[in-house]
């Protein structure tokens, strides 16, 4: 497959990535299996191969480590779902210990609903800013200037870091495929 076409298709998907907003999270408590399915569905754009983005063990550890509230009678609410989505995304970039305090800080500053929606909006904006220039099909990659209020600087920085990481991984993956295909086509059978 042409690596530029593959990168273009990937960039199109990533630039259109959206996270569920707080108001659209389930209003009724759900069991862990439902929580896992929601998170998997929401973060499918980040899925690479067979890698598990989230498991029951991970959720149990997040509760045990105090990264999110304990479920009530084994049922999870909106706040739990939001925590798991954010943790799953941020652990791609930050150590778990820093994520806990970052989430707490954002909730203190903005409240749980606004903190989650602000994160979702920042991620969507970062994905567009990083991936849309690929869709321009120009010979140079041009990032638009970005203005960020200081109270959103941490969220903007981390979501931009994730977007850049995902782009870099895709570029490396496509270049490795191209190199491997080139190497295979140049192999000579001496038997």
Written description of the protein model:
This is DUF1836 domain-containing protein. Pfam families: DUF1836. It comes from Sedimentibacter acidaminivorans. InterPro entries: DUF1836. The protein has helices at 3-15, 32-42, 56-64, 78-90, 96-110, 112-135, 153-185. It is an all-alpha fold and 191 residues long. Helix 1 (3-15) packs antiparallel against helix 6 (112-135) and helix 1 (3-15) packs antiparallel against helix 7 (153-185). The mean pLDDT is 87.
What are the SSEs and their pairings?
Layout: H1 3-15, H2 32-42, H3 56-64, H4 78-90, H5 96-110, H6 112-135, H7 153-185
Helix pairs in contact: 1-6, 1-7, 2-4, 4-5, 4-6, 5-6, 6-7
Protein name: DUF1836 domain-containing protein
Organism: Sedimentibacter acidaminivorans
InterPro entries: DUF1836 (IPR014975)
In short:
This protein has 191 residues and is mainly alpha-helical. It is built from seven helices and no strands. Helix 4 crosses helix 5 and helix 6 (112-135) packs parallel to helix 7.
List keywords for this structure.
single chain; 191 residues; 62% helix; mainly alpha
Q: Sketch the topology as an H/E string, one letter per element.
A: HHHHHHH
Rounded radius of gyration (Å): 19 Å
Distance between the termini: 29 Å
- Secondary structure class reads mainly alpha
User: β content, as a range?
Assistant: under 5%
Total individual domains: 1
Helix fraction by DSSP (H/I, runs of at least 4): 55-70%
Average per-residue pLDDT, rounded, comes to 87
- What count of helical segments does DSSP give? 7
Shape: globular
Tell me about the biggest sheet? none
Quaternary status: single chain
The tally of beta strands, per DSSP, is 0
Indicate the low-confidence ranges by residue numbers. Answer: none
């Amino acid at each position: 497959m042409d690596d530029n076409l593959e990168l273009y298709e990937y960039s199109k998907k990533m630039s259109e990535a959206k996270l569920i907003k707080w108001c659209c999270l389930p209003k009724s408590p759900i069991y862990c299996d439902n929580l896992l399915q929601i998170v998997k569905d929401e973060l499918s754009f980040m899925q690479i191969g067979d890698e598990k983005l989230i498991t029951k063990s991970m959720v149990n550890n997040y509760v045990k480590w105090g990264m999110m509230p304990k479920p009530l009678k084994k049922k999870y609410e909106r706040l739990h779902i939001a925590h798991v989505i954010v943790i799953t995304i941020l652990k791609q970039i930050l150590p778990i210990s820093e994520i806990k305090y970052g989430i707490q800080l954002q909730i203190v500053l903005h409240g749980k609903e606004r903190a989650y929606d602000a994160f979702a909006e920042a991620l969507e904006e970062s994905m567009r800013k990083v991936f849309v220039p690929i869709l321009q099909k120009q010979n140079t990659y041009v990032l638009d200037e970005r203005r960020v209020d200081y109270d959103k600087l941490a969220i903007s920085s981390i979501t931009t870091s994730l977007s850049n990481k995902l782009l870099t991984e895709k570029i490396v993956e496509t270049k490795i495929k191209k190199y491997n295909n080139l190497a295979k086509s140049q192999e000579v059978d001496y038997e």
